[in-house]
């Protein structure tokens, strides 16, 4: 797997975890009565929660940038299979700088604002008294979180969509021509005298999509990517396969490859 892609997925996972913690703490947890009562203490504007409030938006902007960057990585690797790795490695730190700048630009004002917990209109809380975090603009500020968010999200979502669409078109045409060239050899492997290799060929075809779907991994599934966990899962699959097909003999290499593909598929299903 491409080293730059692995770095980005790792960074993306860490940012996802941090963003999730902040969103849980300041958006969802405030709906619990004990925490709501505690938040009433911070009704007066202060700088107590300014950093956390700014980071909550900052990490969200980082997520959208990284989503577009992963689409860019996929695009480069598909259209430039030989030079793509070098292009990504040379431009990696440039994109890190762009990540920091583009995520800071729409949130710069939040780092200077006081924050407070104000009551939400009871019409929207079914009559319950709920406090939500907000910020107080300084007099010289003429910015809006909503407008900044819409502009930022729209730009990077459009970029992601265009890059993914172009990558998908390339993959479809590539697989169509590849399928025409390999049609005869696939038919030759599946007959009455040999084991049914249809699953093997399906996994082989899906391998390309498996690599690209890896970007959909939720951050907490990064724990499952450890070698020890993968080896345990592969051994379970191989032993189960041997037990169910004792009358047939399969080369160890094919079993290992088959188990590896199933393990990747399980990882993706868990992530989705």
From TrEMBL:
Localization (cell): Membrane
Signal peptide (UniProt feature, chain positions): none
Phylogenetic classification of the source organism: Eukaryota, Metazoa, Ecdysozoa, Nematoda, Chromadorea
A GO CC annotation given for this chain: membrane
A Pfam family per the record: Srg
GO molecular-function terms, A-Z: transmembrane signaling receptor activity
Key words of the record: Membrane, Transmembrane, Transmembrane helix
Single Gene Ontology BP annotation: sensory perception of chemical stimulus
Segments traversing the membrane: 9-35, 55-80, 92-111, 150-173
Protein name, per record: Serpentine receptor class gamma
Membrane topology classification: Multi-pass membrane protein
Protein family: Belongs to the nematode receptor-like protein srg family.
InterPro entries attached to this UniProt entry: 7TM_GPCR_serpentine_rcpt_Srg
Chief localization: membrane
